[in-house]
Design goal:
37% of the residues lie in helices and 22% in strands. It is built from 16 helices and 16 strands. The strands form 2 sheets. Strands 1, 2, 3, 4, 5, 14, 15 and 16 form an 8-stranded mixed β-sheet that branches. Strands 6-7-8-9-10-11-12-13 form an 8-stranded parallel β-sheet. The structure holds N-(iminomethyl)-L-glutamic acid and fe (iii) ion. Fe (iii) ion binds next to loops. The site of N-(iminomethyl)-L-glutamic acid has 14 residues, from helix 4.
């Protein structure tokens, strides 16, 4: 079996620790090994420790000299909308002129405009665009993403999107965890109840039957799906064995966080408008909040979610890009780290925990990825800096040197 020894790492950010998501002050503990090294056999980490000790064990290994750079686990991006056609440049320009996300959506832009383009595209058209997006993620140091459907909104088109993810999974080193988000919007020409019936009676059974998704998600928001409608869809999804994630309280405090608690959902995502009651409900039901500051930034809002209160309440906070063409056109976790620190007042260490090990647990993969420990997958990035805090500090350019997925170099010379 091929082995690889990564040596002379200035800060080997391992995130070794308890085998559960990190909470409270644990979020700032990164278990850094200075002048560290790592021996990799095949796709797994065989041993990890001081560079000198690793070197002694590495007679037949290929050497990767990190040259005093920083090494981190591959980022785990727990909320993306990976597969769609086209872009939303018109919306972008209208927002720059002062129109809001909701106004633009009512005027014919928004999610439904991407739905039209995505319906018109075939699986063969969508795959190369999704491949390009996958490559962007890797080039930002991300090795695992969650990916939602939701730009099809017919049985055929939702299945088409999930099949694109399945094809991409087979050919990209990026690990993709699929989520069914049929309830992303009510399609034009249908009323909500009629569409919900279609989601429950036709889409969900096919998606679950063909094992095309691990999670079921709903956009619980005024003008999209209200609490009762969301409850109906999530109940059906759960009955079919899907785990639950919810787009909650993004534009209004509509009780989404509490609904997530009622379902003991794996995650409640967005939470820009969630108050202390929502935070307490999530805490008692152990729901992980997934915070998406890129979407706040890109829609030109200043309503960032209450990350500090959530950390202080003991929630296992996750941060993610929300990569999508409308509200958050970025695949860059380093950019999200910058926003987490500057706008949500998280420390760089808390941000890194939220973007790696906590995110991995939110995808039910905390035992395989998210930290650099013996037996875990060798998914890691080398950053061209000496201090991990630089990754959040220099914004607009990920200071990335190279990326490895399952022990193979996938980015970098
Ligand atoms: O997470 N909130 C709903 N869905 C996306 C936006 C999708 C879009 O605008 O195309 C989000 O922000
Ligand atoms: Fe989203």
């Amino acid at each position: 079996m091929k082995s690889l020894a990564v040596l002379h790492v200035s800060q080997l950010v391992t995130l070794a620790g308890p085998t559960r998501p990190r909470v409270g002050t644990e979020m700032a503990e990164l278990a850094i090994i200075r002048d560290g090294g790592m021996l990799i056999c095949g796709d797994q980490i065989e041993s990890i420790g001081p560079s000198g000790e690793i070197e002694e064990k590495s007679q037949n290994a290929e050497i990767v000299d990190a040259g005093g750079r920083v090494v981190l686990p591959g980022f785990v991006d727990a909320h993306t909308h990976l597969v769609f056609a086209g872009n939303r440049l018109e919306d972008f320009e209208r927002r720059a002129r002062g129109e809001s996300y909701e106004q633009i959506s009512k005027a014919g832009g928004g999610i439904r405009s991407t739905v039209e383009k995505t319906r018109a595209a075939s699986e063969r058209d969508l795959l190369p665009q999704a491949e390009k997006h996958a490559d962007w993620f890797l080039r930002c140091g991300t090795t695992t993403i969650e990916a939602k459907s939701g730009y099809g909104l017919t049985l055929e088109d939702e299945l088409k999107i999930l099949c694109v993810m399945r094809s991409l999974k087979q050919q990209s080193p990026l690990e993709i965890v699929p989520t069914f988000l049929g309830a992303h919007a009510v399609p034009r020409g249908m009323d909500a109840d009629e569409y919900i019936e279609l989601v429950i009676d036709q889409m969900l059974p096919r998606v679950a039957g063909e094992q095309l998704a691990e999670f079921c998600d709903v956009f619980c928001e005024r003008g999209y799906f209200d609490i009762a409608q969301s409850r109906k869809i999530l109940t059906a999804g759960r009955k079919l064995g899907l785990n639950v994630r919810i787009h909650a309280d993004q534009l209004n405090n509509s009780g989404g966080a509490k609904l997530a608690a009622e379902f003991k959902a794996t995650t409640a995502d967005h939470l820009e408008k969630t108050d202390e009651h929502g935070i307490a409900a999530m805490k008692s039901a152990r729901v992980q909040p997934v915070l998406l500051p890129g979407s706040v930034y890109a829609i030109g809002s200043s309503d960032y979610p209450r990350a500090r209160e959530m950390i202080e309440a003991g929630l296992a906070v996750v941060i993610a890009t929300d990569f999508n063409p409308g509200s958050s056109p970025t695949p860059s976790m380093p950019m999200i780290l910058s926003l987490a620190c500057t706008q949500m007042k998280m420390s760089p260490a808390e941000g890194i925990t939220a973007a790696t090990i906590n995110a991995a647990y939110s995808l039910n993969r905390g035992n395989r990825i998210g930290s650099l420990e013996t037996g875990k997958l060798a998914n890691f990035s080398i950053f061209d800096c000496e201090d991990f805090r630089e990754i959040a500090y220099w914004f607009g350019i990920p200071p990335l040197h190279s990326v490895y997925a399952k022990g193979e170099r996938v980015v970098g010379a």
